[in-house]
Amino acid sequence: MNIGVRDVKGSVLEDIDDLRATLVELSRKIHAHPEVKFEEHKASRWLAETAAEAGFDVEQPIGGLETAFRASYRGPKEGLTIAYLAEYDALPKLGHACGHNLIGPASLGAALALRPVIDDQGGVVQLIGTPGEEGGGGKVLLADAGVFDDVDAAMMFHPSGRTILWKHALARRKLFIEFFGKAAHAASCPEKGISALDAVIQTFQNINALREHTVDSSRIHGIITDGGDAPNIVPDYAACLFYVRAMDDAYCDELLEKVKDCARGAALATGARVELNMQGAYRSLRTNEPLAEAFKENLEALGRTFADVDPAEGIGSTDMGDVSHVAPALHPYVSIGPDGLVGHSNEFADAAASKQAFGAMMDAAKALAATGVDLLLRSELREAVREDFEAARS
Asked: CA 30, CA 18: separation in Å to the nearest integer?
């Protein structure tokens, strides 16, 4: 790193330190007022208002989502567009058991601290509020609306039980299956009925038989959302919801068709009519390696160390995957608690409002901002990021 970059980073980190009270207060408020997907009116307003007070131009709503926003700060000349993504939705009943109360303020801090560099170098820094990550696919909808089309780098961090640079995020397809049968008295004339519930159960059995012949890293899991009204009535309606996941988007689509065939076979076997309804999809996550290595160097400079990545560990899905197919993307994980802390738990929700969590949030904000500095000042990094993204697309 040349001395110019080092000096600029030092100034940026000092600015983030000056923002500590503001960022921690925001994180505490969002944690204390959990709002589920697409209902994050308070959190989105607090973050957007803070950005507006700092001189950002705020657009809200964007992409057709009421609680999504884009706050932009433009330099005096054309240049890169660097976007920091803010999540702020909570989980039903569990509150901020995924730590999204830390993500929004960290991205806000990084965006605010990058303003002087944008003034000097040109370009745009954006804070993009992305609601509904927990099951709503907010970033998918924003990507479809073109929100990320002009972004040169999209970055965020995620709280975790371990500090790791990346992990796989599976492609995911959400399939709602409905069966329509014929009601009858289940004791006196069951032969006159067609059980939609039997079709649902047979679907689960068919899928269980399919599992033996799927790639190990793939996942198929579902629930029965409607199983009938009373034991003495042959159910004329029943439904189930499945998630189909795979490491590769093409294989995920292939597996989805097999799951659909499982449902069609159940309909054929029972005589019920089936309707298959897609309810959304997440694409696999492509981590931009040069961007990730720059973040790693910046976070290590703050005294944090990274655990080794186990590609098979903790594989889930995120709507950040869709963003990574549109723009170079960064989605690392920073520890907010003891090793082994499990996400989507009461323990994680408690940890997300701890002193350790706020320290992780501040370090994440600094590393994100420093990575933005690298992009703006190091032409070789910009080229490497672009080449990695184009190679992944092709």
From this structure: 20
Sheet (strand 171-180) strand order: 219-226, 237-246, 171-180, 273-282
Q: Residue 103: CA atoms inside 13 Å, Cβ hemisphere, count?
A: 28
Tokens matching residue 174: 């959400």
pLDDT given for residue 312 in this prediction = 58
H-run or E-run covering 225 = strand 219-226
Q: What pLDDT shows up at residue 212?
A: 94
The 10 Å Cβ neighbour count of residue 380 is 9
**Regions of the chain with pLDDT less than 70:** 1-3, 311-314
**Per-residue model confidence (pLDDT) at position 313:** 61
| 94 touches 346 (CB < 8 A) | yes
What is the set of domains in the chain, with CATH numbers? Answer: 3-168+285-393 (3.40.630.10), 171-282 (3.30.70.360)
DSSP string, 150-203: T-SEEE--EEESS-BS---B-EEEEEEEEEE-B--BTTT-GGG-B-HHHHHHHH
3-state secondary structure of 279: strand
Give the whole-angstrom CA distance, residue 272 versus residue 203.
Answer: 12
- 165 backbone dihedrals φ, ψ, rounded to 5°: -75, -35
Among 212, 277, 275, 222, which Cα is nearest to 245's? 222
Residues in the chain: 394
Question: Of 192, 168, 187, 100, whose CA–CA distance to 139 is shortest?
Answer: 100
Q: What global pTM score does this model have?
A: 0.89
Nearest residue to 108 via CA among 44, 159, 63: 44
Q: Give the residue among 307, 327, 341, 342 at the shortest CA–CA distance from 139.
A: 327
In this predicted model, what pLDDT tens digit does every residue of 97-145 receive, in sequence order? 999 999 999 999 999 999 999 999 999 999 999 999 998 999 999 999 9
H/E segment holding residue 244: strand 237-246
Please state, in angstroms and rounded to a whole number, the distance separating the CA atoms of residues 327 and 160: 24
Buried b (16+ CB within 10 A) or exposed e, 35-70: bbbbbbebbbebbbebbeebebebbbebbebebbbb
* Predicted local distance difference test score (pLDDT) of residue 1: 45
Q: What is the CA radius of gyration of the chain?
A: 23
